[in-house]
């Protein structure tokens, strides 16, 4: 009988109890980074959000019997929450990565080490596109980098290029090596159009964001699964390009000085 009564009790919501419901109503509905802090000056976790109020509100209402043990431990230790607003989500993502590497919070496991900086290389020939990364890019006629997070950029770029090269095939036919977060170091695709070389160069140096849209337009995907997959890859590439473009700004502001 006692066990049955315990099961009927509502789950504890430690952040609501400690910070109060009014605290969460005052959080801005803006992109930004947030800090979950423990006693003293310790930062336990750094995250980014497209909407800070919605993201932090999800912690407030998280039912402790339905979240992983690691999250339960984190929520039990949080005594303060701070945030910094950002102009957009790509800026928040870049700021999150920087803070994780700098602060190394105890509950952040991904991104604690800086992402590897590797070069991307390509050859946009008359009938094919070769895309390569790292050592495989050394012999390519065109190269860009080293680039922050190049391995995570390489795979989405290859998937969109594969879709553009095979517009009549469903994305379920995508070769298995291209489906994961890491793609083969050197891939040749039967893809060519007049300004492909310039679009690749402009995308990777942050001066032109058209490449993902052009690749998607060549395909005309209509299946919901394919549309969803393409959307995720376009978002990743858009975030990467925003970081490349932001890296160009100091040089432009200084009149091109190194």
The percentage helix is 40-55%
Low-confidence stretches: 1-10, 250-258
Largest sheet: 4 strands, antiparallel
Please tell me the total number of domains: 2
Provide the spatial order of strands within the biggest beta sheet.
6-4-5-7
Tell the overall outline.
elongated
The number of helices is 10
Distance between the amino and carboxyl termini: 74 Å
Strand content: 15-25%
Structure description:
By secondary structure, this protein is α+β, with helices and mostly antiparallel strands. The chain has two domains: 12-103, GIY-YIG endonuclease (3-Layer(aba) Sandwich); 117-250, no CATH class. Helices cover 45% and strands 17% of the residues. The chain has ten helices and seven strands. It has a four-stranded antiparallel beta sheet, with helices on one face. The radius of gyration is 22 Å and the shape is elongated.
Summarize the topology:
Elements: H1 2-8, H2 14-19, H3 21-25, E1 32-37, E2 43-49, H4 52-60, H5 69-77, E3 80-85, H6 89-103, E4 117-124, E5 129-133, E6 142-148, H7 150-165, E7 186-189, H8 196-204, H9 211-219, H10 224-253
Helix pairs in contact: 6-10, 7-9, 7-10
Task: Identify the notable features of this structure and list them briefly.
disordered C terminus, 17% strand, alpha+beta, 258 residues, 2 domains, 4-stranded antiparallel beta sheet, 10 helices, 3-stranded antiparallel beta sheet, GIY-YIG endonuclease
